[in-house]
Design brief:
The chain is of the alpha/beta class and about 375 residues long. The chain folds into two domains: about 5-255, TIM Barrel (Alpha-Beta Barrel); about 270-360, Chorismate Mutase Domain, subunit A (Up-down Bundle), CATH 1.20.59. Helices cover about 50% and strands about 10% of the residues. The protein has 13 helices and eight strands. The protein has helices spanning about 30-40, 70-80, 95-100, 110-115, 115-125, 145-155, 185-190, 200-205, 210-220, 250-255, 270-310, 315-330, 335-360; strands at about 20-25, 50, 85-90, 105-110, 135, 160-165, 200, 225-230. It has an eight-stranded parallel beta barrel with strand order 1-2-3-4-5-6-7-8, surrounded by six helices. Helix 1 packs parallel to helix 2, helix 5 (about 115-125) packs parallel to helix 6 and helix 11 packs across helix 13 (about 335-360). The longest helix is centred in the C-terminal third of the chain and has 41 residues, at about 270-310. It is elongated. Bound molecules: phosphoenolpyruvate (PEP) and manganese (II) ion (MN). Phosphoenolpyruvate (PEP) binds near residues 89, 110 and 204. Manganese (II) ion binds near residues 27, 230 and 240.
Length: about 375
Amino acid sequence: MSVQASFISLNNWPSGRHKPFVIAGPCSVESEEQIHETARQLSQTPVSVLRGGIWKPRTRPNTFNGLGKDALKWLAEAGRASGLPSAVEVATAAHVEQSLEAGIGLLWIGARSTVSPFVVQEIADALKGVDIPVMIKNPINPDLELWIGAIERISLAGIRQIAAIHRGFSSYEKNTYRNVPNWNIPLELKRHFPELPMICDPSHISGSIDLIPHLSQKAMDLNFDGLMIEAHHDPAHALSDKDQQLTPAAVGELIAQLVIRNLSTDDADFLDKLKNLRKDIDKIDYDILELLASRSRLVQEIGLYKKENNITIFQPERWAEIVQTRSRYGAEIHISEEMILDLVRIIHRESIAVQTRIMNDEK
Ligand code: PEP
Ligand code: MN
């Protein structure tokens, strides 16, 4: 059963008044000078929070693991000196305790921790009775339930300043992205928790600086509340994630160039026109559903016919023909190949399920 979680809007977070709410700072705190200089430069931009990694969950051993407790002190001090609350990733109860002791303002749970209910529960237990904003990154695998579960665990610990961070999902195949965005997953999360603030981390989605502006704008267009961006005063010499860190000045330029859109408007003309266009869309959607029902009746008839003649459900040649002809036709009428493939796969999967039931006399 789902937990009744309640969330305090980002506008009421002590540090959340800017739209977009931008958290920026280095992947890792590498030295006292580095974090102070990066924080000083970021304080001249509309960034709201200074981030820094202290305990780094690195994929491989013998890489830079973060500097631990000393760096935590530098991060909190750099935040105070530049007037920015500081944020750090925590993965254990000890990290939570040390961060609270050092005066860190916000915590986040990393993607590699969200996958583990034990880790999230340990963090949740350490947060009982504490009032601090906690941001929860999606798990590395595209599993909405795990993300929801982590949010519920932190919520059950009594934390109400909670935000989700979308940082993309691991994929085995080589891809344009370091972590594929799968935007539908954070959008589904928002459907589940409409009040939950959503932050996008374009740095870890992209893996390089090139796609960060595009991804940031896309997040704004999808009504995300904020961004978490990796920034370093000297990215070329960063000890971790150097290809994806922007300079503080570049973060400032990026924020200045973002187009921030409204979720709604009072403009009567706009609302009227939108209503009419949506009526047309509604009609088309119902037509599509009627057509799918007619198609399904034919699928059932074919299923019975195959059964009577002892013919297999799956017909490789027919399936190959459907994919080829529908993709070709889709291209002619300007529907993307991706959409056609998704669509025919869903339809075909359902047809196979329907015919399997018929073949085996199941209800
Ligand atoms: C990070 O933000 O430094 C980090 C390790 O990210 P993620 O948990 O998204 O991999
Ligand atoms: Mn990083």
